[in-house]
Here is the input.
Amino acid sequence: MRFFITSTGTGIGKSFITAGMVRQAKEMKQSVAAYKPVISGFDPAHVEDSDTGRILNSLEWPATPENIKRVSPWRYLAPLAPSMAARQEKMTLDFHALVAYCQSVLQRREEAVLIESVGGVMVPLNDRHCVLDWIEALHIPTLLVVGTYLGSISHTLTALTVLQMRHIPVHSVIVNESENSSVSLEKTVDELKRWTDLPLIPVTRRIAEDRLGMPELRQLLQVS
Here is the structure.
């Protein structure tokens, strides 16, 4: 199975979900690989605190320069949209090279291959392309990670609308409980059920030590 993991925005929990899926795949004795090809706000002095570092940790791959490049070939220092972060470094993200890289990793032999996006579905990658174009180019099912914070319903429905306008297949919506949210996970899921027929997978918030187990995501990795 192959999934593209995207979200309604930054800080919603994509890497938390990606790492959780990797660990679940390992528990199920499946071979798995995961990638976050584009990352901004990447500090090479603190790899362990980055999304790339979290994915490497879940894969049990050491954070060597080779593995960092393998998981995240396009890395930018500034915590900005990739288009802005690259411009600040006097660079431009090559969209066609990005798509070609992703197509190559999707051909790997692992039973599960996960590609995690940067930011939300409309984040600019360069002056002409955004994450939505990237998803469309890969032709694989999408997992949309959303939160439970106040305003998440509107952001979720907006993201689903633009994905559906491009005829991008959304496999499931993963409702990841937001920290200190004034809206409960249960109420968020209940409201979304009124607006979409897509499968909704609620994920309760966990402390760091509990991230090894995420049985809610097991259903995504089960081969029918």
